[in-house]
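Schema walk-through. Below, the input block comes first and the output block second. Nothing else is stored per chain. Lengths vary across the set, and this one has 128 residues.
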Amino acid sequence: MKIVIRLAEILLGIIFLGAGLNGYTVLFGLDPFAPTSPAAMAFLGDGYLLALEKGVEIIAGVLLLIRRFVPLVLVVLASIIINILAFHLFVDPELLILAVLVVLLEALLAWHYRENFKGLLESKPEPK
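--- output ---
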């Protein structure tokens, strides 16, 4: 199981690192090196929103690859992944398979690291 988890971390890390770097190539006016969703690029524009999201994706991808702060990365990526899935479900289904793969990888890793999230789910946390 450890090998499967590590492969999931590596694959998710590569996907987000690649997507982040690909977004920055577009931001700098270059041709993307991987397929992009024209509708997503139009939505994100070429300003701060694209730079912010792609910056988070690059940092998250690197952290997953070096296996540091993985539970935190999963929390940060959760909202981005939900938006990716919703966008490809309702606006641009061309890359829906990749979106579903990302959701499955996130779910697998979240399940594996579930013990790390218990404190986040306390309704009345005790101060320490």
